[in-house]
Specification:
Layout lengths: L2 E2 L2 E2 L4 H12 L5 E2 H8 L3 E2 L2 H15 L9 E4 L3 E4 L33 H9 L7 H23 L5 H11 L17 H48 L9 H30 L4 H32 L8 H18 L7 E2 L4 H23 L5 H11 L8 H6 L7 H23 L4
Antiparallel strand pairs: 1-2, 3-6, 4-7, 5-6
Helix pairs in contact: 1-3, 3-5, 4-5, 5-6, 6-7, 7-8, 7-14, 8-9, 8-10, 9-10, 10-11, 11-14
Length: about 425
């Protein structure tokens, strides 16, 4: 606990951990990288999250950044706890604290109204255009009383943005109350401002994470294509040459990268902008991203085959991307339930668990699609090969490996499930890689 004159000072757990960490290493300036590894070791957050944490701790300690008594900023490095009179006592020692009367409640009708200057800073009416200054004003308003701040804010100019900042900072102030959006004035505008605010603060992380998800899905597709090509070459009755291996690797890699890009973009944006109802948001975001990517690939493939070869064949993509994306979002959310304050970045065994759970979810979704007659990459390649005279990539020989006379339902199901498992594992592994 953090006590001041015998009274507990509330801090959210991560901020309390940060304060303890700085006190433990008070003899040195602690690098930002070490702080992130220790305090935010299971998630990835932006630099602004650390600045927010330090600002909140200073407010609770009644510290000043310009003349710090407790936490000093070390430019281009990190932070240092500078209070010299730190006394360490055994856990069994008795607390010796002074009895202090409870502080008088703040009267909002006092001549020195504490709300109005902060509301002006928050809404921009007082000339405060700096976002960090507005966030500090929002934190102070939460400390004074969230409900009263919202009542006083009402519908003054820029109230939608002010509500968005209050909503975003409520997670960083232990004593903050609820900041509802639905049913409040300008609900859609407030939601839009909140999404823009969170994306702006996490833009660099979102872009890097999206790229890693796409790369992971692409590498999984390459691996699947190589494995499929080698199996096809060795299957009884196959006429495929070794040239089929790089061709299938290229197709698999392209499909995996496109799927990873779509699912990764939707899931990462949802993860960055959502702090409540996280599982629903991740599933919806990943499904929308996967569906959009699948529809684009479907349209390009159909257009290319018709324009170049005159082939008219049924090629899926949109529905399949939607289903695989939703499964990836479900598996990822189930495996990372405690990462609501950042982008999940598990380490060691936990990272393997995330990849395994996401792979299982995607594999089950792919199996269901195949049983419903909706082919994925392998099944689509087989359909195109059947429509092309003399093609070496018909997958009929693979059916013979498992006892089917043709590319039957069982073969299609096994191949689709394998594709789903590989995509889910590769995508999740790439997505959770720390930079």
């Amino acid at each position: 606990m953090l006590l001041r004159n015998g009274r507990e000072q509330p801090l959210i757990p991560r901020y309390f951990d940060l304060l303890v960490f700085l006190i433990e290493r008070r003899g040195e300036a602690v690098h930002r990288r070490d702080i992130f590894d220790r305090v935010w070791g299971d998630v990835v957050v932006s630099d602004s999250a650390l600045s927010q944490a330090v600002r909140t701790i200073r407010r609770v300690l009644d510290d000043e950044s310009r003349e710090p008594r407790f936490i000093r900023t070390v430019p281009r490095h990190g932070y240092r706890f500078v209070f010299a009179d730190v006394i360490e006592e055994d856990d069994e020692s008795e607390w010796r604290v002074a009895e202090t009367p409870a502080p008088a409640p703040v009267r909002v009708d006092d001549v020195r109204d504490p709300f109005e200057p902060l509301l002006q800073r928050l809404s921009g009416a007082g000339g405060g255009k700096d976002e960090e200054d507005q966030r500090e004003a929002a934190e102070l308003l939460h400390a004074l009383g969230t409900a009263e701040a919202l009542r006083r804010l009402a519908t003054r100019p820029h109230h939608a943005y002010a509500r968005a900042v209050l909503r975003d900072t409520r997670w960083d102030v232990a004593e903050a109350g609820a900041v509802p959006i639905l049913g409040q004035p300008a609900a859609l505008a407030t939601a839009g401002q909140l999404v823009a605010l969170r994306l702006r603060r996490a833009a660099t992380m979102v872009a890097a994470r999206w790229a890693r998800g796409s790369l992971g899905g692409g590498l999984a597709g390459v691996f699947g294509g190589v494995a499929g090509g080698l199996l096809l070459m060795s299957a009884p009755g196959s006429k495929a040459s070794f040239a089929i291996v790089p061709v299938l690797a290229l197709i698999g890699g392209g499909a995996g990268a496109a799927g990873g890009a779509g699912v990764g973009a939707g899931l990462t944006v949802a993860e960055a902008v959502t702090r409540s109802r996280r599982a629903v948001a991740l599933i919806a975001g990943a499904a929308l991203g996967g569906g959009l990517a699948g529809w684009i690939v479907q349209w390009l493939a159909r257009w290319s085959l018709t324009a170049l070869f005159g082939l008219e064949t049924g090629i899926g993509g949109g529905l399949e991307g939607l289903a695989i994306g939703a499964a990836a979002g479900l598996g990822y959310s189930l495996a990372t339930p405690h990462a609501a304050d950042g982008l999940a970045a598990p380490r060691g065994r936990r990272r393997f668990v995330v990849a395994a759970v996401t792979a299982a979810a995607c594999g089950l979704a792919a199996l269901a699609l195949a049983l419903a007659g909706r082919p994925l990459v392998g099944g689509t390649v087989h359909l195109i090969a059947q429509a092309s005279a003399g093609s070496q990539v018909t997958l009929t020989p693979l059916g013979r490996l498992i006892g089917e006379p043709d590319f039957g339902r069982l073969t299609a199901a096994l191949i689709a499930a394998g594709e789903g498992v590989l995509f889910g594992a590769g995508f999740a592994w790439g997505l959770t890689r720390r930079s």
